[in-house]
Amino acid sequence: MNQNEQLRTFLLHNAKRLTEEWYDSLDKNNAVGVYASTDSKVIQTLKEQNYEFHLYICNVFIEDEKPFFEEFEVWIHKIAKDNEHTRTPISSIIKEFMRVRKQYCDLIDEFVHTYEGHIESTLINAWEQHIIRIFDITILKFVTAAEETASTQLKAHQEMIHELSSPVITIKKDVALLPLVGDIDTARAKMILESTLHQCADKHIAHLYIDLSGVVMVDTMVAHQIFQLIDTLNLLGIKSTLSGIRPEVAQTAIQLGLSFENIRIKSNLAQALETDINITVK
Q1: Strand 175-181 to 169-172 pairing
Q2: Fewer CB within 10 Å, N side or C side of the chain?
Q3: Which strand ranges, in their side-by-side order, compose the sheet holding 207-214?
Q4: Looking at domain 169-277, which of 3.10.129.10, 3.30.750.24, 3.40.190.10, 3.40.50.720 is its CATH number?
Q5: What pTM was estimated for this model as a whole?
């Protein structure tokens, strides 16, 4: 067994000890996120994640860097997506990576002292530089993975918000209402178009009422998107009725050259529902 393998065995033998010493030395008074948890299950999971980290890192002294990270990135991405860690400031996580790195430097010194005089100083220095490099790369990969996770979550939340802000509400059987409220920018208009088409198809809607009375202002692109929605619904065999069109919205549409000739329009939603499907709105 060469000295690299001996070091790996020594580190692996002390992995559980590293985990316990790391957790015990956490600054509990100033800890945040996952490190401040008092939930026994969260704490146990955190320790298991830390121990698993050591099982990977120990191999860095006997494997080439590329294949090492191909396996290790599984752990990195798992932690980046972990719910407890996503609620923990990245600065705090980086701080713990650095504390663990110090543990490894100290443990390498401890290993060297057990073989005092038998390990060349150049090899000792190489080990220390190697562990510092591996931790630096690990921190960078974690931050990148965490940013990707945050971006994905943000996009999912935005899509959910947009979908909830443009609900197709079934009134009766195959008749539904799409009440639009608030400012509509180009991004939201596109989301409304896609979401409405999916919801109408899923609910087998034959007639959709689109109420714009809650829309204060739209730009030219948004007006175009609304008319595109109506045209697309028509192609799918879904009738549509517009209600609550504000003067400024109508003016924008006219300036764009969009025609109201083939669109059913009612001055307000109450009138539309009472006239078409005999629903009295007070």
Answers
A1: antiparallel
A2: C
A3: 169-172, 175-181, 207-214, 239-243, 264-266
A4: 3.30.750.24
A5: 0.65
